[in-house]
Automatic annotation (TrEMBL):
Protein name as annotated: Dolichyl-phosphate-mannose-protein mannosyltransferase
A GO molecular-function descriptor: pentosyltransferase activity
Record flagged with keyword Transmembrane: yes
Domain (Glycosyltransferase RgtA/B/C/D-like) ranges: 133-275
Principal location class: membrane
Single GO BP term: lipopolysaccharide biosynthetic process
Upper classification of the organism: Bacteria, Bacillati, Bacillota, Clostridia, Eubacteriales
Amino acid sequence: MKIKSMVSKLNFLFAIFGIIVLLISGHAYYELTKEKLSINTTVIILFITLASVITAVRVNRKNTKYFLIGLSVISLIIYALWNLYAKTTPISDYQILLEGANKIIDGTFKQESFDKTNYFYFYNFQIGYTSYLALITKIFGDKLIFFKILEWIYLIVTSVMIYKICEDRYTKDIGAIAATMYSLYIPNIMGSSVINNQHISGALMVTSLYFILKNDKKSAAIGGVFLGLMQIFRPIAIIVIIGVAITYLCKVFSKTMYLEILGILVTYILCFTMVVKLVDFAFVKTEIAPKAISQSNAKYFKFVLGLTDEGVYKIPTESARKTQVYFDLERLNFDYDAYNKECLKVIKNSITNYKETFPFIKTKMYDFLGKRDNQYSFSLSEEKITDNTFKLSEIGNLQYLFLIIGALGALLGKFKRNNKEIDIICLLFIGFILVHIFIETQTRYRYEMYILLAILAGEFISRFMKKTKSVL
């Protein structure tokens, strides 16, 4: 009974924290966009959103297969149309990664990855995704359309897995609503023309969650493999590991079959670790990387940027290759041990002088949670960023507000229910918020949050619909 009480209290605390974050997000959104808010636009978008989810629920109730196929086809058409308009060419880091992929193919990548002054040495975590791009180039050629089609597929897979998680964990209605809201979310559509690691890592994350939530060792092993692959492409899996660990450890103490439950958690973590270690070994053995890519050479730079918004020596970025990190390292003759020590000093100083650091973090998180997603700036050239583009992105931000309100409603509803297990969706949402308090932020880094917000919002909208059954 004490353990069940503890789980209830933890869920209560998670819900409270989530509610606070969502209220701050909503307030930040309003303060940062209130002059642009249009009542007519708001009503129209709200109507379209409700009409879409009502249609999705009705189709899904008749035939889930047709719903998922229909959602996938509609998403594919929307992504293709956006790509025809955007004609996105890789810029910034994305261009460097594609160049690196071509060098892996022609066998000259070692000259970069082993060079301590090079992008791929101080950002060695990018080598995993770069190797993936090399593999795709080897199979399909270097035409951008093949990479973009794969981005669309990953977005569609994410939608389907959102549905499957909701179907297993909640209801089919919630799955249909959440998947539809995610698929029609404008920042995701705008991002579909950008070749980046977020889409594939997001698809791998939700697939991993789908399997681990099945609560058996075989599924846990598969889930661990998917999470390991996610870590190779985008090193944020630790948030999922912590969330899953908290969830399963609470189960261990609250159920009689604790050894079996603990075995599931251990299997998940072991398979995750094995995948990461095997990939590390393969990269070192083939001399794609000089050392394990799971161990960052520049260990703390994201924390320095996240706590100060500048490098150790306050030298501004000039280009994707000559960033603040590059200039800091240059000042230290590319001595990585010395650089990491200097970073730790900056971090320690920021924490010690918290009165100076807190206002910056407050503003940073306010902007991160409330500002318009800047995905469009990577998908469109300057001449295509017009008033209509801004209006479209403002509609996307309005959709973001709806997700926030829906998620807020879901968390408020959790107070009425005495949950026997930790709500992992709420927990992961909190995890992705917390980590960004300390590291560098951009509004496009909210991508994983959108997945979790869609699930939470789907839960609330489904309950709302049940109370107005005549709508369905």
